[in-house]
Amino acid sequence: MSKDNYKKALLIRNAFLSLTSLFIVLELVIMFQLNQPIKIIIEDMSTEEELFVQEVEYGERFEVNYIHSVERSPVSEVFEVRGDGIYTMESHTESFGAGMPYAGEDVELKDGTFTIKNINRKVHGGTLRIRPSSVFPHHIIIGDTDIVISSAPYKGKNLEVKLIKSYFRGD
Questions:
Q1: 79 touches 68 (CB < 8 A)
Q2: So what's the pLDDT on residue 169?
Q3: Cα gap 68→157, rounded to integer Å
């Protein structure tokens, strides 16, 4: 093998090893990111006081349940936790009154309830903002936890439901 061919082979080998190392590091970073615990936090928008904190999994769903103020019918909205924020996935309602969602991939009527599925829309800014009803019960259900946000300490406050990766907060 000539000296020039030997140098070219070494350059190719070094470039290959460098790229392989880069891909391994990127894969480790991605795996680290995906395996980080994530917490769902309900906080007072004006004071940023954390009123509720619970660890959740990526892909986990939670519900916001309330009585529609105009239609006086129950509404259940289903959200999904993702790495870049909260996504609206489904809406369950008995009617399409004022302010109710009306678009989605699939709409089905079963036992008097309309279900809009596959909405798959990121909540603006990745953070859900809620003003709990002062008239009707208003709930956030995360796993087996039922949080009544129409009662103290949530009542009368503008709330933000957001996600925080644990390692960003020093936890």
A1: no
A2: 43
A3: 18
Write out pLDDT tens, residues 104-159: 558 888 888 888 889 999 999 889 999 998 888 999 999 999 999 999 999 999 99
Other residues' Cβ atoms within 10 Å of the Cβ of residue 48:
9
Convert 158-170 to b/e letters by CB count within 10 Å (16 or more is b). ebbbbbbeeeeee
In three-state form (DSSP H/G/I as H, E/B as E, the rest C), the secondary structure along the chain is CCHHHHHHHHHHHHHHHHHHHHHHHHHHHHHHHHCCCEEEEEEECCCCCEEEEEEECCCCEEEEEEECCCCCCEEEEEEEEECCEEEEEEEEECCCCCCCCCCCCEEEEECCEEEEECCCEECHHHCEEECCCCCCCCEEEECCEEEECCCCCCCCCCEEEEEEEHHHCCC
Q: What is the pLDDT of residues 27-68, one digit of tens each?
A: 766 665 556 789 999 999 999 999 999 999 999 999 999 998
Q: By CB neighbour count within 10 A (0-12 exposed, 13-18 middle, 19+ buried), where does 116 fall?
A: buried
